[in-house]
Amino acid sequence: MAHNPVNHPARPIYRAIGGLTGIYLVIFGVLGFIQNSGEEFFAQDAALVLGQGTNRGYALVSVAVGALILIGTGIGRNLDAAINKLFGYLFMLLGLAELALLRTDANFFGFSIVTVIVVMIIGLVLLTAGMYGKVGTEEQHRAWQDARLNL
């Protein structure tokens, strides 16, 4: 898509932000798994970790997603941009779904409203990092510049 920036001057910063988001998810997941040890996997009355409601199921998902983001950040080569975009969209979808299920018996990740807000912010951060972290050839960069200037 010609409207997404290619070789953006701030792409190393966005790549670092994506990596920091992955580190946060891993730390949150590990702390959540430790805090909820002995509980049901999808307990709804889960403990608070870093001010957010979570259970062992969401903690495990956080560790897995955070590790994938870190692996993508380490490899680079536009894999990080694709992973960040994918998980950005998925986190936004998860936040909306959990917002709808917040006070029901279907709140299987034990979310609180704070967790929904944090998940939505993580989704937006990952989407931004994915959109601005793409690397390409000079030809692709010129096409992006032309599309940007001809709007």
Task: Give a short synopsis of this structure.
The protein is mainly alpha-helical and 151 residues long.
What can you see in these coordinates?
- Keywords: Membrane, Transmembrane, Transmembrane helix.
- The chain crosses the membrane at residues 12-34, 58-79, 86-102, 108-132.
- This is DUF4383 domain-containing protein.
- It comes from Micromonospora pattaloongensis.
- The structure is a single chain.
- With 151 residues, the chain is mainly α.
- It has one domain.
- It has five helices and two strands; from the N terminus they run αββαααα.
- The protein has helices at residues 11-35, 56-75, 79-100, 113-132, 138-149, and strands at residues 48-49, 52-53.
- Strands 1-2 form a two-stranded antiparallel sheet.
- Helix 1 packs antiparallel against helix 4 (113-132) and helix 2 packs antiparallel against helix 3.
